[in-house]
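A reminder before we start the practical. When you read a complex entry, don't treat the lines as separate problems. The point of joint prediction is that each chain is placed relative to the others, so the output describes one connected object in space. Small molecules and nucleic acid strands, if listed, are placed in the same frame. In the example below there are two entries. Take a minute to note the order of the lines before looking further.
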Amino acid sequence: MANPDLINQELEQYETDLSWVLDNYATLIEAYPNEFIAVLNKKVLTHGRTIQELKEALHSNFPSDAHRAVIEFIYPEHPNFVLPACA
Amino acid sequence: MRIKCQRDRYRYIRLTLRFINRTFNVDHNTNFCVDTGAPYSLITYEQAVQWNIPLNSLTATQSPHSVGGLECPGYILNDSMMLFRESNGKLHPIAVPKMLVLGEPFKKPYKPVPPLLGDDILRQFTLIVRADMHGGDIALTDENIQIVYPPIH
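Here is the predicted structure of the whole assembly.
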């Protein structure tokens, strides 16, 4: 496991960035509907139509940030997550 | 331990954590959707792609899985760990001996589902959900919560 202090710091940043995404969701819907976005330090680093597209852009341009960025799919409408059936 | 959760725009509850699997060098921050109705937790196909988990190296489940209107093949990821973070910075490791990983949905195009934190993990904790009028705080705790119900008249 990596340094706990570093993990702690990165998780705290992640929570802040996730809050930023949730607070600014309406704006993100306008800019990136039905797209994946990667957010770090309250900024959209990159976005993509598919997770592969996003991953390639993230790893090419921000290789050291890939593991700590908030990756979110932007749902323009209420998504209906039906519960999974029993295994 | 008391882990703070957040609500998203659509009222789903999100829990931030670090997901670690040494076999496949996974060590990523992520967030799961807390789903008290889900019998088990799962990682999505998108996470598997993002984290380079080779699905063909995992054991496939006997039958496909239906989640959020999607039907996907399933795989089992062994020996993972979740790290929860308290607001005071204390980290809490949770062993996850088995985790379902969704494969690519059969039908395309599709809208992805979020990773779910289901009853297999939630049963170790108590989920506290305060009504919006009482602050709206949501937390996962392992504290012994005593609930006193008012008498019914």
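Discuss with your neighbour: The helical segments of chain A are 4-23, 25-31, 51-61. What might explain this?
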